[in-house]
């Protein structure tokens, strides 16, 4: 009985050592993540091998694994920029990005876990200032929103493309102008809209008047042609045809031959 504690203590210490060793030698990487291996006795950050993928991994207890999220992420950035005429503009943009998985070791070695603050956000601010500085407040407020968004994306992509970051999209969510400038732009836009509506009404009225003139001219031309074609002989022949048709009618009538103004029969009837 006296020997039992002497055997149990080393055994207990061995079990504790195994548990600690196992806990430091295993790592589980979750969905949408990847691990960068750091070897204390093997050259530091591993950059010439693919990062550790999702699932369970065994590593030496003296090494360390840095876990990164490699799925698409979103970062909202608010910034103050200047327009082409020097006015202060507040811009709110959302960036969609993810680290390049194949270069995750280099990203960790050169940029570190704070790569978003060290690389991505400064690049967006620089691109936004450069792009917005080309436009007037009126363009920023209305017609150029999509163009500005695309230009900021393209310029940011040029900066981060060799920084091991994949840029997927930049969305300009809001452009805030000084209140006085915003009110002036809105007044101008309303005036332009009213002017366009007035011009539209004028054009519509002119088209309607033109239509009436064309119809009137057409009727005048038709009457002129008809008048020119109705000679005395044609009118006399038509009168004779009408007289014959009336004479054939069963209705009671009186026909006075040669009593009309043109020598045509004059037909009198009570029906």
UniProtKB/TrEMBL annotation:
Alphabetic keyword roster: Membrane
InterPro entries named in the record: Band_7, Band_7/SPFH_dom_sf, Prohibitin
Main location, first listed in the record: membrane
Entry's localization field: Membrane
UniProt GO cellular component terms: membrane
Gene3D superfamilies: Band 7 domain (3.30.479.30)
GO biological process terms held by the UniProt record: mitochondrion organization
Annotated Band domain residues: 24-189
Domain of life (superkingdom): Bacteria
Membrane topology: Single-pass membrane protein
The protein, known as: Band 7 protein
Origin species: Allomuricauda ruestringensis (strain DSM 13258 / CIP 107369 / LMG 19739 / B1)
Lineage per the UniProt record: Bacteria, Pseudomonadati, Bacteroidota, Flavobacteriia, Flavobacteriales
């Amino acid at each position: 009985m006296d020997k039992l504690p002497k055997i149990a203590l080393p055994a207990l210490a061995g079990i504790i050592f195994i548990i600690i060793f196992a806990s430091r030698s295993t790592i589980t990487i979750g969905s949408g993540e990847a691990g960068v291996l750091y070897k204390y006795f093997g050259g530091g950050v591993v950059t010439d091998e693919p990062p550790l993928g999702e699932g369970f991994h065994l590593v030496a207890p003296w090494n360390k694994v840095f876990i990164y999220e490699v799925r698409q992420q979103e970062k909202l950035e608010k910034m103050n920029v200047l327009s082409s005429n020097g006015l202060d503009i507040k811009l709110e943009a959302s960036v969609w990005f993810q680290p390049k998985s194949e270069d995750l070791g280099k990203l960790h070695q050169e940029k570190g876990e704070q790569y978003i603050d060290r690389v991505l956000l400064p690049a967006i601010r620089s691109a936004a200032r450069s792009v917005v500085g080309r436009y007037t407040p009126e363009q920023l407020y209305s017609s150029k929103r999509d163009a500005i968004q695309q230009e900021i994306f393209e310029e940011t992509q040029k900066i981060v493309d060799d920084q091991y970051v994949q840029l997927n999209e930049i969305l300009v969510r809001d452009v805030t102008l000084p209140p006085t400038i915003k009110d002036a732009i809105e007044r101008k836009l309303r005036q332009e809209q009213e002017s366009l509506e007035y011009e539209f009404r004028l054009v519509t009225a002119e088209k309607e008047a033109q239509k009436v003139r064309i119809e009137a001219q057409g009727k005048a031309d038709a009457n002129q042609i008809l008048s020119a074609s109705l000679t005395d002989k044609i009118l006399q022949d038509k009168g004779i045809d009408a007289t014959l048709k009336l004479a054939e009618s069963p209705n009671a009538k009186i026909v006075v031959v040669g009593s009309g103004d043109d020598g045509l029969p004059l037909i009198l009837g009570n029906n």
